[in-house]
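Example 9 (inverse folding). The structure is encoded as follows.
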């Protein structure tokens, strides 16, 4: 089924323009962060893969918060990937920071019942069709654009389970021992930088 790329692009641009105006007016970057990150990802997909999406076999679906475990479905030439968008509008002295990450998304986390120390190792249940797009939308209120980092589920599991282990492993979390909240910084994702989402095209070959 051919994707109406022009219509998708116009709708994405319209939404993002309104969101940018709302953020500028209210000064609140956080309340629209999730959906804006998803639509920024969607728009860049359309910009980069628009020609391929004209194929009869192409599919594009935006699911957002439908609880399917991913936000966007992209299918080209009989191959399908599921995209989970993770956005941040938080800036630190070290660059953007994703502050609402959860260790169990990327790692196996076990809490010792006596010591309450977490034991952490990489997940083994890799979803081969799942991709993560981390969206740095810190400059979005000014420019209307974003920066992107693209990881497969395997890459995210390997890389971010280590990030979580280094920040939380072999430690007791004093207030909530079972909590798996942690931060992801730009330095953790730098080698996956991909502002045109070209790595997704490689996965679709």
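The amino acid assigned to each position is listed next.
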């Amino acid at each position: 089924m051919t994707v109406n790329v022009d219509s998708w692009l116009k709708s994405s641009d319209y939404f993002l323009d309104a969101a940018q105006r709302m953020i500028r007016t209210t000064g609140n970057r956080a309340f629209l962060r999730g959906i804006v990150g998803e639509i920024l990802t969607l728009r860049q997909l359309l910009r980069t893969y628009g020609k391929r999406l004209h194929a009869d076999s192409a599919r594009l679906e935006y699911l957002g918060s439908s609880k399917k475990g991913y936000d966007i479905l992209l299918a080209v030439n009989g191959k399908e990937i599921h995209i989970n968008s993770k956005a941040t509008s938080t800036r630190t002295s070290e660059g953007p920071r994703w502050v609402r990450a959860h260790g169990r998304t990327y790692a196996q986390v076990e809490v010792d019942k006596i010591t309450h120390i977490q034991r952490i190792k990489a997940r083994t249940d890799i979803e081969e069709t799942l991709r993560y797009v981390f969206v740095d939308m810190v400059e979005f209120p000014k420019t209307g654009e974003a920066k992107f980092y693209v990881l497969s589920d395997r890459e995210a599991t390997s890389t971010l389970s280590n990030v979580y282990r280094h920040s939380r492993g072999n430690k007791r979390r004093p207030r909530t021992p079972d909590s798996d909240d942690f931060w992801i910084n730009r330095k953790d994702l730098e080698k996956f930088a991909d502002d045109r989402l070209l790595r997704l095209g490689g996965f679709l070959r």
